[in-house]
Every structure is written in structure tokens, then in C-alpha cells.
Write a structure and sequence with these properties.
There is one protein chain. By secondary structure, this protein is mainly alpha-helical. The protein contains four helices and two strands. Helix content is 70%, strand content 4%. The protein has a two-stranded antiparallel sheet.
Amino acid sequence: MDLLYFALMVGTGVCLFMSLRTLFVPNRMRGGNFLSLENFLYLGMVYFTVLVGFGMVYLIFGLYAEPVITEANGNGGVSFLQKAGMAVYFSAMTLFSVGHGDVVPLGAGRFIAILEALVGYTIPAAFVARAVLERE
């Protein structure tokens, strides 16, 4: 079981890294126009990958190690689907910096949430900077 846990964490980390890497690798903007549908979908897929990737990190920690998130009322979810839903929900709230406070991080989850919030602020800045630099 430890090998499965390790493989899931490494796979999730690689997917997150490769998704974010596409924002910083020199490449022509898709569609040649900053406001194209292709660029919008590209940015949406990067956000989706990061959201689901961090959701997997929260879920994997909760299943195989110490829980890193819990509901504020103490009900951490009973079934796997409830835990997965809570992990993806918390990931979305952290990534988009909304944070309603109904799900809170615990222990190492606080540092993971800080990293995810930093990534959430970096994605649009990198996308705009990349578009501006390539237009010149």
C-alpha cells in the first residue's frame, strides 16, 4: 500500500509540474490572438489540471496518511465520494482564493493550501505576461 501511495503522489506531482510548466516554456500563443477561444480553453485546462491535482493531493493524504482537511463542523465526510468531493471543493476554493471557511486545512494541509494559493495567483500573471511579451 505504501508503494501505491508513493506512486500516486509522484504521478500527481508530475502532472501538476508539467501543466504549470507549459505557462513558462517559450511558445507562441495559440490562435495568434490573445483573446482566442483556444487560449481561453488552454488556460481553463491548466486551471482544471491544477484544481484536480491539488484535490488529489488532499484526498491521498486523507486516505493514506494524516487528514489534511476537515469540515469546520467536524464532519469530515464518511464515504470515499464525500471525501473526494470535499477535497476538490477545498482545492477550488483555495485556488480561486475564495475560501468560505466551511472546509479548513489541518497540519501539513496548511502548507499545501499556501502553495496552491500561490499557484492560483501565479497562473493568470504568467499567462498575461507571456501574452504581452510574445506580442512585442
